[in-house]
Structure formats: structure tokens, C-alpha cells
Amino acid sequence: MSYDLIVIGTGPGGYVCAIRAAQLGLKVAVVEKRGVHGGTCLNVGCIPSKALLHASELFAEAGHSFAKLGIDVGTPKLDLSAMMGHKDATVKSNVQGIDYLFKKNKIDAHLGAGRIVAPGRVEVAMNDGSGVKTLEAKAIVIATGSDVASLPGIVIDEKTVVSSTGAIALPAVPGKLVVIGAGVIGLELGSVWSRLGASVTVVEYLDRILPGMDGEVAKQFQRMLEKQGFAFKLGRKVTAVTPVEGGATTVTFEPAAGGAAETLEADVVLVAVGRRPYTDGLGLDEVGVARDPRGRVVTDAHYRTSVAGIYAIGDVIVGPMLAHKAEDEGVALAEILAGQAGHVNYDVIPGVVYTMPEVAAVGRTEEDLKAAGIEYRVGKFPFTANGRAKANLSTDGFVKVLADAATDRVLGAHIVGAGAGEMIHEIAVLMEFGGSSEDLARTCHAHPTLSEAVKEAALAVDKRPIHI
């Protein structure tokens, strides 16, 4: 079977690339090993975790905030199986949506493990047992995403020692949950189970949470999580995770700089130390596709690999492992293959931590700017001074805008607060157009809204906020 384009992997990068290419008139096929479309994101990542985050947040609100609003519902009762049912239904609906989009755009889907045997040729070991199918195309896109990373000596059984996959499907609320890793995934899933009643301790090798995010944001956010009941063991190196009698597990760790070992007992241990590019079984070495020391496929600015006709996007290449980054790369590559000028602005890719409060960021951090020697100005505004936040009982957090000291161009923005993941996008649009903090400050914002805090932070860059 012959095509213009074969996409291996139907996660956010792969399925979006396939759809955009089909819209542009290319004959497209996709290959998916999982058996269902959507990749990690839709099946065991972004979508199911957000379903649980939303449900658990409402559960926590009912138990802690409703009474303050004059709503007496008593003590809420958790029906974990129903909550998991909501999660599963959400996943199913999203996956079915991709099936529909493939049919709508006349994309052929081949369910099986794909292997590149030569430039322009892919062999698929079909999941249905019908054998190996050979597909040919002018271009092949590797969009196989990433897989869970672990630590040496730790065995993930998805029962008592779990990855993110097991953490979204626990059969009961653990009494004690130890999370190894204070990144986005660990804090989000830790939040879910903390809200539902677990005692959560986070063990992190670095001396801070959320590596890569603005330092002030990380510090303030850690305090908020501690108020919610999180305990943190920072600057600690995990040396062993050992099962003990009765189904519990002991986590042993020591100061990263050296020192006496400590132990924690847990009912469940979540290993959330990052992800690795997934290229297993693709035949990349045999066909000569180069990878870097971290296992990522090496590409140029147009997503071309070291082998003509083979391209790569998403988590398997350099850059943040974010679904929306992969989607934008998929669109850009499809447009390039169709003769257009596809492009991704890597300086304006927002990132969000979907806890409560949320944490959202786009562009540079203060640490980035200092390291680059760029003079900048800072504008900050707290949600404690925002009328809508007071009415909503969501005054935790602040907005922080970083602007070039000479040109006033906005170089980065950081928000901690309810709805931060939605609010960050007006700043992203502003940055796409090279806008200044003055542009943002002079844009009329509806009152009362949480977004007014964004305007006030922009005003604060010039030391003229109104409400503080």
C-alpha cells in the first residue's frame, strides 16, 4: 500500500500531523501500536489525570469551602469507582473523537507495531494477528512519544510501586503516598490523592520543586502545597524502594550531598522522575537514524532526521515533552511537506501545572534572563487584591510579568492561581505579536474577572498598579 505520508504514533503530535496533512491533500496512513488512538496523553496521561484533578478538586471544595459560601451538604462521601468511571468515560469519548476525525479526513489507520525497514517503507506487525503488512510512502514521520522513566533498582509493578499509569487507576485511596519526583506529574497526581485523603510526601533530588520553572513561583507554590498537607523531602537521593510484609513499601533516601539515610513507609509509591523518548522496535539504528546521548531523534529545523524522507516530532525530539508542543510541530511538518512554510515559535510555548491553584508559565524565567545578561523589569500582582478572587475564595497566588528594560517587550509571564492555565494565553498571544507590558496594561479587561490581575501585573511593570 502506497501513501504520501505515514505517521507512526497517534498521540497528539501524530494524529494532528496526519489530519493537517490530509487537509492539505496528502494521502495519509497512521500506524498505532497501542491499539487505540490518542497516545499517552489521551489514554493514560493528560486527559485522565485532568478528569481526576477536576473531580477531586470538587470533592475537596465540597468538604472545605461550601460551608463558607452558605452551602450545607454535610461531609461529602467518596465513591472512587464512580470517579474512576468518569475518568474512563472521558478517555473513551476523546479516543472515539480521533477515530471520527481519521474517518472524516480519509486517513487509513493500521493498528500494530510499526518498524522502518528502509527509507519510504514501514512494516506493521498487525495487532489482530493477520501478519505483517508493508506500507510505502514518500515521507515517514516518527511520532512515537515518550515512556515512563524510572530509577536504577526500582521495579514498577503498577500496584504498590506505580508510574503515572498506575497512579490514575488505584483501587483505593492509599493511607500514605510517597511521590518520588517534584515535577509536574508528581505534584498533580499527588494532589489528586491528597484531596481524597492520602498523606502525601514528596521526595526530590533537587533542592526545589518544579525544576525549570521560575524560582520565586516554585518557592511560593511549595508553601501553598504544604498548607494543603504535602510534606517535602528536598535535596534527597532515593537509594531503594523495598516491599515489606503486609503490602507496604519502604522508601530509603539520603541527602543528595551525602549523609545519613532515612526511610519512609508507604502504602503506594509513585515514581515520577520524568519520561524518556520512546523509540523501541522502530529499527532506527538499522536504517541509520541518528539519536543524541539522551536517546532523542536528532532533527534539523524542518524536523528532518539524518535519513532522507524520515522525520520526527514531539517527545522523541529535543524540547519540552508537552502535548501542545507536539501538536504544533505536527502542523508545521505537515505544512512543510505540502510545500508551505510551517513554523513553531519555541519561545512562546506555555506550560501548566493543573493543581489548585494552577501554575502557568510562558517565555523566560527570571533565572533565564539573569543568566543571559538581559536587563528586565518585573510587575507582580496578588490575587488577594482581586475582587473576583475574593468572591470565589481563590485568593492564593499572583501574576508576574517580565519585560525587557529597554524595549518593554514582554519576555515571560508566570501565574499561580485559580484558572492560571486559561489566563496565560492572553500573554502568549501578546508575546507572539511582540507586544509590550504597556500594550497589556492598556487593554481593557472586563470587571470583575481574575484576568484583571494580569492587567494589574502589567501596570506594575511601570510601578503604577491601581489596586495595591
UniProtKB/TrEMBL annotation:
<dbReference type="InterPro" id="IPR001100">
    <property type="entry name" value="Pyr_nuc-diS_OxRdtase"/>
</dbReference>
<keyword id="KW-0520">NAD</keyword>
<feature type="binding site">
    <location>
        <position position="274"/>
    </location>
    <ligand>
        <name>NAD(+)</name>
    </ligand>
</feature>
<feature type="domain" description="Pyridine nucleotide-disulphide oxidoreductase dimerisation">
    <location>
        <begin position="349"/>
        <end position="458"/>
    </location>
</feature>
<dbReference type="GO" id="GO:0006103">
    <property type="term" value="P:2-oxoglutarate metabolic process"/>
</dbReference>
<keyword id="KW-0285">Flavoprotein</keyword>
<feature type="binding site">
    <location>
        <position position="315"/>
    </location>
    <ligand>
        <name>FAD</name>
    </ligand>
</feature>
<dbReference type="InterPro" id="IPR016156">
    <property type="entry name" value="FAD/NAD-linked_Rdtase_dimer_sf"/>
</dbReference>
<keyword id="KW-0547">Nucleotide-binding</keyword>
<feature type="active site" description="Proton acceptor">
    <location>
        <position position="447"/>
    </location>
</feature>
<dbReference type="InterPro" id="IPR004099">
    <property type="entry name" value="Pyr_nucl-diS_OxRdtase_dimer"/>
</dbReference>
<feature type="binding site">
    <location>
        <position position="114"/>
    </location>
    <ligand>
        <name>FAD</name>
    </ligand>
</feature>
<dbReference type="GO" id="GO:0005737">
    <property type="term" value="C:cytoplasm"/>
</dbReference>
<dbReference type="InterPro" id="IPR050151">
    <property type="entry name" value="Class-I_Pyr_Nuc-Dis_Oxidored"/>
</dbReference>
<dbReference type="Pfam" id="PF07992">
    <property type="entry name" value="Pyr_redox_2"/>
</dbReference>
<feature type="binding site">
    <location>
        <begin position="144"/>
        <end position="146"/>
    </location>
    <ligand>
        <name>FAD</name>
    </ligand>
</feature>
<keyword id="KW-1015">Disulfide bond</keyword>
<feature type="domain" description="FAD/NAD(P)-binding">
    <location>
        <begin position="3"/>
        <end position="330"/>
    </location>
</feature>
<dbReference type="GO" id="GO:0050660">
    <property type="term" value="F:flavin adenine dinucleotide binding"/>
</dbReference>
<comment type="similarity">
    <text>Belongs to the class-I pyridine nucleotide-disulfide oxidoreductase family.</text>
</comment>
<feature type="disulfide bond" description="Redox-active">
    <location>
        <begin position="41"/>
        <end position="46"/>
    </location>
</feature>
<keyword id="KW-0274">FAD</keyword>
<dbReference type="GO" id="GO:0004148">
    <property type="term" value="F:dihydrolipoyl dehydrogenase (NADH) activity"/>
</dbReference>
<feature type="binding site">
    <location>
        <position position="50"/>
    </location>
    <ligand>
        <name>FAD</name>
    </ligand>
</feature>
<feature type="binding site">
    <location>
        <begin position="321"/>
        <end position="324"/>
    </location>
    <ligand>
        <name>FAD</name>
    </ligand>
</feature>
<dbReference type="Pfam" id="PF02852">
    <property type="entry name" value="Pyr_redox_dim"/>
</dbReference>
<keyword id="KW-0676">Redox-active center</keyword>
<dbReference type="GO" id="GO:0045333">
    <property type="term" value="P:cellular respiration"/>
</dbReference>
<dbReference type="InterPro" id="IPR006258">
    <property type="entry name" value="Lipoamide_DH"/>
</dbReference>
<dbReference type="InterPro" id="IPR023753">
    <property type="entry name" value="FAD/NAD-binding_dom"/>
</dbReference>
<dbReference type="InterPro" id="IPR012999">
    <property type="entry name" value="Pyr_OxRdtase_I_AS"/>
</dbReference>
<keyword id="KW-0560">Oxidoreductase</keyword>
<dbReference type="InterPro" id="IPR036188">
    <property type="entry name" value="FAD/NAD-bd_sf"/>
</dbReference>
<feature type="binding site">
    <location>
        <position position="204"/>
    </location>
    <ligand>
        <name>NAD(+)</name>
    </ligand>
</feature>
<protein>
    <recommendedName>
        <fullName>Dihydrolipoyl dehydrogenase</fullName>
        <ecNumber>1.8.1.4</ecNumber>
    </recommendedName>
</protein>
<feature type="binding site">
    <location>
        <begin position="181"/>
        <end position="188"/>
    </location>
    <ligand>
        <name>NAD(+)</name>
    </ligand>
</feature>
<dbReference type="GO" id="GO:1990234">
    <property type="term" value="C:transferase complex"/>
</dbReference>
